[in-house]
């Protein structure tokens, strides 16, 4: 039977960012250096495929430092941790490696710098997300206030409206964040912002690629995990920019084929913690059902690389 034709628009860049690549290397190198098991506080990145592969190599994932023995190394996830976590590890004389993405660490440093200048911080982020918890945990309770929406800005109770600064989670929607920042600046004209955009280059680039192809496609598939903030934002960006159907899929087996019935064009991208092997799997599943022609939509080139911590580059 003849397969129906399908134009597949493949977003570039997509998938792993430098911070995710570094975090995974940190776990792998720690296992090589110290042997298994190596403990990881929280999923190193939000992707089940990646986490399961590292489990097979000897990583043990836990949610709390109290779940780790004193005599085994522990790694802190790419999302960052409150300052109290490395302090507790140090008190227990544990070997620990911080895999926090350097761009998240930049936000931590900004928050501390503003606080030292006497400013209270407003963080734009998602309540309960590990990155938000980590950033707010850099300072004492009450020094960082969280807003998630434009509506929250009107309700936030600050200490002094003339002594404020804002920071943001690195994986937010660019457009939503602009609206929240505008609301903050309208209510608090003296509020200070970051010297350089907090939303990371990878989040920005992946959203821009989706915006570029959205008007050309009948449907969008985002390869990523449901607990991945940047992956979920890509679905939202696609829908907001004219995609009639946008779905988040972890694997090809998650594709809702009935929703794709009758389409002639589809876009594919992947969140920053999704490996390319899963994108290839989705493309192969589409080729099984369609006569696929691939067109790449490239909006940026990425060549950023972050070094792993020195302790992993030194001999055991």
UniProtKB/TrEMBL annotation:
Coiled coil: none
Keywords recorded for this protein, A-Z: 4Fe-4S, Iron, Iron-sulfur, Isoprene biosynthesis, Metal-binding, Oxidoreductase
Pathway this chain belongs to: Isoprenoid biosynthesis; dimethylallyl diphosphate biosynthesis; dimethylallyl diphosphate from (2E)-4-hydroxy-3-methylbutenyl diphosphate: step 1/1; Isoprenoid biosynthesis; isopentenyl diphosphate biosynthesis via DXP pathway; isopentenyl diphosphate from 1-deoxy-D-xylulose 5-phosphate: step 6/6
One GO biological process term: dimethylallyl diphosphate biosynthetic process
Active site: 131 (proton donor)
Binding residues annotated for [4Fe-4S] cluster, in chain numbering: 17, 101, 200
Comment on bound cofactor: Binds 1 [4Fe-4S] cluster per subunit.
Catalytic activity reported: isopentenyl diphosphate + 2 oxidized [2Fe-2S]-[ferredoxin] + H2O = (2E)-4-hydroxy-3-methylbut-2-enyl diphosphate + 2 reduced [2Fe-2S]-[ferredoxin] + 2 H(+); dimethylallyl diphosphate + 2 oxidized [2Fe-2S]-[ferredoxin] + H2O = (2E)-4-hydroxy-3-methylbut-2-enyl diphosphate + 2 reduced [2Fe-2S]-[ferredoxin] + 2 H(+)
Function, as annotated: Catalyzes the conversion of 1-hydroxy-2-methyl-2-(E)-butenyl 4-diphosphate (HMBPP) into a mixture of isopentenyl diphosphate (IPP) and dimethylallyl diphosphate (DMAPP). Acts in the terminal step of the DOXP/MEP pathway for isoprenoid precursor biosynthesis.
NCBIfam families: ispH_lytB, PRK01045.1-2, PRK01045.1-4
Family (UniProt): Belongs to the IspH family.
Name of the protein this chain belongs to: 4-hydroxy-3-methylbut-2-enyl diphosphate reductase
The organism's taxonomic lineage, starting at the top: Bacteria, Pseudomonadati, Pseudomonadota, Alphaproteobacteria, Rhodobacterales
């Amino acid at each position: 039977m003849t397969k129906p034709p399908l134009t597949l628009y493949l977003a570039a860049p997509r998938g792993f960012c430098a911070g995710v690549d570094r975090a995974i290397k940190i776990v792998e190198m720690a296992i090589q250096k110290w042997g298994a098991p190596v403990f990881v506080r929280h999923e190193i990145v939000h992707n089940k495929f990646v986490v399961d592969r590292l489990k097979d190599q000897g990583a043990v994932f836990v949610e709390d430092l109290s779940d780790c023995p004193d005599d085994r190394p522990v790694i802190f996830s790419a999302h960052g941790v409150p300052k109290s976590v490395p302090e507790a590890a140090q008190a227990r004389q544990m070997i620990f490696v911080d895999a926090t993405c350097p761009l998240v660490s930049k936000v931590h440093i900004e928050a501390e710098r503003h606080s030292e200048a006497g400013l209270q911080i407003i963080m734009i982020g998602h309540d309960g997300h590990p990155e938000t918890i980590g950033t707010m945990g850099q300072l004492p309770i009450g020094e960082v206030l969280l807003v998630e929406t434009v509506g929250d800005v009107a309700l936030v109770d600050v200490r002094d409206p003339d002594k404020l600064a804002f920071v943001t989670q690195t994986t937010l929607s660019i457009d939503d964040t602009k609206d929240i920042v505008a609301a903050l600046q309208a209510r608090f004209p003296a509020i200070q912002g970051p010297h350089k955009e907090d939303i990371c280059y990878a989040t920005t680039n992946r959203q821009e690629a989706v915006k570029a192809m959205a008007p050309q496609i009948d449907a969008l598939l985002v390869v990523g995990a449901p607990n991945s903030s940047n992956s979920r934002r890509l679905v939202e960006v696609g829908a907001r920019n004219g995609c009639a159907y946008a779905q988040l899929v972890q694997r090809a087996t998650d594709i809702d084929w009935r929703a794709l019935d009758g389409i002639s064009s589809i876009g594919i991208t992947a969140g920053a913690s999704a490996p390319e092997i899963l994108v290839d799997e989705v493309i192969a599943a589409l080729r099984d059902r369609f006569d696929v022609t691939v067109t790449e939509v490239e909006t940026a080139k990425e060549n950023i690389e972050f070094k792993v911590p020195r302790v992993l580059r030194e001999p055991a």
